Amino acid sequence: MSAPTTTRAPSAAPKGTRGTHQRAKILPTAVLLIGAFYCLVPIIWIFVAASKSRADLFSTFTFQPGTSLLDNVRDLFSYNDGVYGQWALNSLLYAGVGALLCTLISAAAGYAFSRYSFPGRNAIFYLILAGVLLPAMTLAIPQYIIMAKIGMVGSYWSVLLPGLISPFAIYLARIYADASVPASIIESARIDGASEYRIFVTIGLPMMLPGMVTIFMLQFVGAWNNFLLPYIMLADEEKYPINLGLYTVLTRGSGEPALYGIAIVGTAISIIPLIALLLFLQRFWRLDMISGGLRG
Amino acid sequence: MAGDVTQRVSGPLGSRTARRRPRTAAPYVLLGPALALFLAFLAIPVVYALYLSLQGMRIVEGGVFGTREEVFVGLANYRETLTDGAFWSGFGRLAVYGLIAVPLTLGLALCFALLLDHAGARARRLSRAAIFLPYAVPGVIASLLWGFMYLPSTSPFSYLTEKMGLDAIPFLEGTNIFPSLANIALWGGVGFNMLIIYTSLRSIPPEIYDAARMDGCSEWQLAWRIKVPLVVPALLLTGLFSLVGTLQVYGEPTTLAPMTTEISQTWVPLMHIYRSGFIQDDLPMAAAGSVILAIGTFAVSLLLLRVAQRRAFGGHQ
What we know:
- The structure holds two protein chains of two kinds.
- By secondary structure, chain A is an all-alpha fold.
- Chain A is 69% helix and 0% strand.
- The N terminus of chain A is likely disordered.
- Chain B is mostly helical.
- Chain B is 69% helix and 4% strand.
- In chain B, a hairpin with a 6-residue loop joins strand 1 and strand 2.
- In chain B, helix 7 packs across helix 9.
- The N terminus of chain B is likely disordered.
């Protein structure tokens, strides 16, 4: 598990100078565009479908836009007294607050593993790391029972708290701290008389920031995606995250096709903020620390 | 504090001891929250799952109908789960699904990553963003999305075939369910894996390529002989993620289940475990199933790492 000392990618390597003739450009470009098309089609489809009235949905050509977008959006937000807005807020809470806290906790732990040697360091680290391989269901069942015993099943806490610990995030934070926080700077801060905690907050954390953005994104998407835990923990629809909410709409919809329209608009709207966030934060990602972690 | 340092530097034991870092509780304090959460939500639940899996729900005499109580049953839950045909069929389906989804996801991710790294390709930024986009769509939402594209009544593909006078494409019938589900995993996973492999490609020093080109290496040979071997660690990692992800498939088939009769309540192992625990209300049995799945995941991961390590690093060590 030796961490790389430097995995920085040359982001603008001078590759444009490579001599390639015209013919060699067409095939690679075509393959990439086919891939892009494949990935975009369902997203385009859902937005087109969201604009259709119930009758059009099942009768007109699927990529022909309809004129009922506003009606559908109104239907969606009035469904069950506007529970959709509540689901969106819940997802934001589980994913946003959860990922933020998890990132801070993981950064502190990763920094501690990386910058201190203390008794039990390796044993604790590998113990935590082993948690990466545990299937979610293996944990979800005992987590459910423990939550039930302390009376927290069905509460916001029952979904939020288990999401705060991520072995993979701690592993990444350690790799990133190894690569980005030089021991010499910590040492000189110590000589200047700064306390260990002040060094962590004012020197360590800022230097780990790009890595923390990556961890935050991974955690955010992971929590936003998490279906199993809320499915098991929550009974009250008011506390559902957006994906679980839409799943229940669809399940009901199989007996009542009217609800398909609501599920479709709800799906379309739910992916807008996440796509925007990912495209915006893409440039701040440090994915090299993920792939660099295994380098021998 | 400054005086402290001076004192230590000029201390009687000399500078060696003095320069040693002062003993501090800081690492334990910084680790504190992570450790507490690790214990509460990972370590204790795992131990509890092991304990629970050795218990059984049995009807105990008393009252009019008897009451259900937890009693120690040893390995009975494991025996029952391991001899349960439905549980194993779940693994069988998982294997078929995984054999389609994992190689396709990794193969396409590698292919796209190589093309993104290929100087001749155009529209690289656009393609990269577009192929990555599905990563932003939660698995359950992606299943809903594709579900509508599979359902004969809303499918754009079936709309076309029906216009041509053919039947609707039976995406959700019979064995078609495997490629249909694998396609959802492929769609959602290829972009993220592509980015990891691509990032790994970009960290290879360009001098290596120049040297190879000087020796008359074509772009194609460059990709196969130099780039691919160098990104094996990244492939290994993405492979491991895909494999672990496959073993834990749950949300996708559960979401598609209302749309098709093909997907039973025990279609994959996790659905079987969910049914034991929450529909049949037998949490000990579910715990035993989960432990078996966890051990399986560990075994498969270790095997993969072992094999890959020999292939990837064997020559150098």
